Amino acid sequence: MFNLSQIKKDFPIFENNQSLVYLDSTATSLKPRPVIEKLVEYYSKYSANIFRGIYSLSEKATEEYEKTREKIAKFINGKKEEVIFTRNTTESLNLLAYSLGRKIIEKNDEIVTTIMEHHSNFVPWQILSQESGAVFKVININQSGDLDLYCKNIKNQKSPSDSEGKMTMENSKLINLDNIITKKTKILTLTYISNVLGTVNPIKEIVMVAKKINPKVIVIVDAAQASPHKKIDVLDLGVDFLTFSSHKMLGPTGVGVLWGKYDLLCEMFPFNFGGEMIAEVFLDKTFFKDPPYKFEAGTPAIAEVIALSEAVSYLEKIGLEKIETYEKELVQLAYQRLKEEFGENIKILGEGNIRERSGILAFNFCNLHPHDVAQILSEKNICLRSGHHCAQPLHQFLGVSSSCRASFYLYNDKDDVEKLVEGLKEVKIKFKL
């Protein structure tokens, strides 16, 4: 599919940690050499502030910064003026809760989210609903780990476009939001891919159904776990806002992206006030710049934004479709091997329909605390996450306080799967199980 040995050579961390088994890309991805080199290039060759200087170094920095905005716009099929740089997905979502939510949400309005959300796409809306008197609705999941949005499977139903009945909707699923979205629903905000279950939500279909019920509902998507793995087309999805982070898609930390429809961005008030978001200031009033700049007060993470462009180029060169297919194969192998070796001693969270999952496996092992499991694996230089993964409502719903999470990316391979298996065998030996 792609040259995995060459890909590993592109990541200097493996040169310095030759036995490293990195299974925590859901938290943050490793960084390839072109991204690191771009960071050094900025600080070495044109380390100046953007927008504010008419000298060549500042102009060069500004040019590189704005090139990244253009690249991100193309990456998600949006427009340059619709791309806002923030610190991370969390800040993007809080910006929306503040600048959009506090503008449109009133008492008895409805905000809808899901049980599988990261805290950053749950708590801001929960707090907003409490402050405003809005109704906070939370969609649960079914036994397979999918959002509980579906009717029963429909078999052999004639396709609406097939008058002769040759096409069928074998095993198709109908999304039912009639009891969730109403005329009072102002905001529907949900994740594209669960950072715990790996569930890939059918965003396009959900948006179509939700907007059919209520054309005015604003749909926000947390794509932090999708942008590193899936090709995203905001126009095709039909969403109103979409957010993601640089550091999860091979880019530097400290940079988030907020994309939004331009007319909606124009109606929102700024999140921060200060330098570069100002058009004019007088003693009695202030005028702000148009989007995206009115949401980008102060000096940003210039080098990091510029280096994000290299991360996008790297992903596009390999191909997101290839990456997604590879990860699914790897996570299926991991699931198979873990079940073969440990059977009932390993409990996979949301294990239904594993073939449709992203490269994430959250599990509990031999009734041990996840921190104990992760600590012993760390001794083998196996890096995975333990805890509630900033998704406590989901863990509470599943009846567990925490879990281990192994997440796979383009630099992982079958050997990493086997090392995880061997590491868990060592855990059993350590605890005399």
CATH architecture of the largest domain: 3-Layer(aba) Sandwich
Name the CATH class of the largest domain.
Answer: Alpha Beta
Low-pLDDT stretches: 152-172
The N- to C-terminal Cα distance equals 39 Å
CATH topology name of the largest domain = Aspartate Aminotransferase, domain 2
The helix/strand series, from N terminus to C terminus, equals HHEHHEHEHEEHEHEEHEEHHEEHEEHEH
Can you count the beta strands?
Answer: 15
CATH superfamily of the largest domain: Type I PLP-dependent aspartate aminotransferase-like (Major domain)
Widest beta sheet: strand line-up:
2-8-7-6-5-3-4
| Mean pLDDT value | 93
Structural class: alpha/beta
What count of helical segments does DSSP give?
14
Helix content: 25-40%
Describe this structure as you would to a colleague.
The structure is a single chain. The protein has 433 residues and is of the alpha/beta class. Helix 5 runs parallel beside helix 6. 43% of the residues are buried. It contains 14 helices and 15 strands. The protein folds into two domains: 133 residues, Aspartate Aminotransferase, domain 1; 271 residues, 3-Layer(aba) Sandwich (Aspartate Aminotransferase, domain 2). About 5% of the residues have low confidence. The two termini are 39 Å apart. The longest helix has 23 residues. The strands form four sheets. Strands 2-8-7-6-5-3-4 form a seven-stranded mixed sheet, sandwiched between helices.
